[in-house]
């Protein structure tokens, strides 16, 4: 009887481990890329180019402003990334078992990524809402600022002022964005690991860095349109009559080019393309860093089974 106990504990830990690793490493990555994420959000809110945003923030708000909303960012990783990476790995393990241990086809990995993204976004949407509002607060007129002190104060104020269901404001585009991001990020990472390590014979470090770069590119390319809409929906406030700028995600997407006063029209086609490139580059570094640190050690052969595959 005494010998059966460790096996039970091992079984529980092997199930819980992907969630713990995913959340902890996601929080670590957030501490590194929070300034990049802040600049990206400000660009989406029409504050100018990356250089302009950085200069204005340093001049008007100080260096600490780059880490505004860090508590909400950490809470988002503790909820969203924990659920996202943990569920992806659990679902992948089950699918591999059903496939007799053979590598999964890309389409099946993409489907698992979509599912994991939806699960993670549903859990992490309240923290994501708090993060966007804290990051966008300084862009609002002084009278309209919410002045949340930290993530928990933000959640408390949202419930008190707008009701519990308001915690999931913008949950629709958040879920769609997470599904597209995960489809691009997680599926491409696993596929790249197999290509770099098994087909090209690259070493451990080269495989991890290469797969993270590919994953970061596909994550940013797949998620940016939805990320923009999500940011606009989550930061919006009602006017004096109680009417919101947008009725939903589709309305935001259709209206932005015509009557969103917060997003100035680019002065030229070149300026528009340059702004898009900036967002892609920032998102690439954002998600590339997350991929490296998110506990996704599939590129390390000696850790692959230990960290993510169910122990036999």
UniProtKB/TrEMBL annotation:
Family assignment from sequence similarity: Belongs to the mitochondrial carrier (TC 2.A.29) family.
Protein known as: Uncharacterized protein
Keyword Plastid: no
Keyword vocabulary terms for this entry: Membrane, Mitochondrion, Mitochondrion inner membrane, Repeat, Transmembrane, Transmembrane helix, Transport
GO cellular component: mitochondrial inner membrane
Pfam family, one: Mito_carr
Its membrane topology: Multi-pass membrane protein
Subcellular location as annotated: Mitochondrion inner membrane
First-listed, main subcellular location of the protein, grouped into a coarse class: mitochondrion
Solcar repeat feature ranges: 13-94, 104-195
Superkingdom of the organism of origin: Eukaryota
């Amino acid at each position: 009887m005494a010998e059966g106990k460790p096996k039970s504990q091992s079984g529980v830990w092997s199930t819980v481990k992907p969630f713990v690793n995913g959340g902890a490493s996601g929080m670590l990555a957030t501490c590194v890329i929070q300034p990049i994420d802040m600049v990206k959000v400000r660009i989406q809110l029409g504050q100018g180019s990356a250089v302009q945003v950085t200069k204005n923030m340093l001049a008007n708000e100080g260096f600490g402003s780059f880490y505004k909303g860090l508590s909400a960012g950490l809470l988002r990783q503790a909820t969203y990334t924990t659920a996202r990476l943990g569920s992806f790995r659990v679902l992948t393990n089950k699918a591999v078992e059903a496939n007799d241990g053979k590598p999964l086809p890309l389409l099946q990995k993409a489907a698992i990524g979509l599912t994991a993204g939806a699960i993670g976004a549903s859990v992490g949407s309240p923290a994501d809402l708090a993060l966007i509002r804290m990051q966008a607060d300084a862009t609002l007129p002084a009278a309209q600022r919410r002045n949340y002190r930290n993530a928990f104060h933000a959640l408390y104020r949202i419930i008190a002022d707008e009701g519990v269901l308001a915690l999931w404001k913008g949950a629709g585009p958040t879920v769609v964005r997470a599904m597209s991001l995960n489809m691009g990020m997680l599926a491409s990472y696993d596929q790249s690991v197999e290509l770099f390590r098994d087909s090209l014979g690259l070493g451990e470090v080269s495989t991890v860095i290469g797969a993270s770069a590919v994953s970061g590119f596909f994550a940013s390319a797949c998620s940016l349109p939805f990320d923009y809409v999500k940011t606009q929906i989550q930061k919006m406030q009602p006017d004096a009559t109680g009417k919101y700028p947008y009725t939903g995600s589709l309305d935001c997407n259709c209206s932005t080019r015509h009557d969103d006063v917060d997003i100035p029209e680019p002065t030229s086609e070149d300026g528009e393309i340059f702004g898009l490139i900036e967002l892609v580059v920032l998102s690439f570094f954002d998600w590339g860093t997350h991929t490296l640190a998110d506990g996704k050690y599939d590129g390390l052969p000696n850790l692959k089974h230990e960290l993510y595959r169910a122990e036999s």
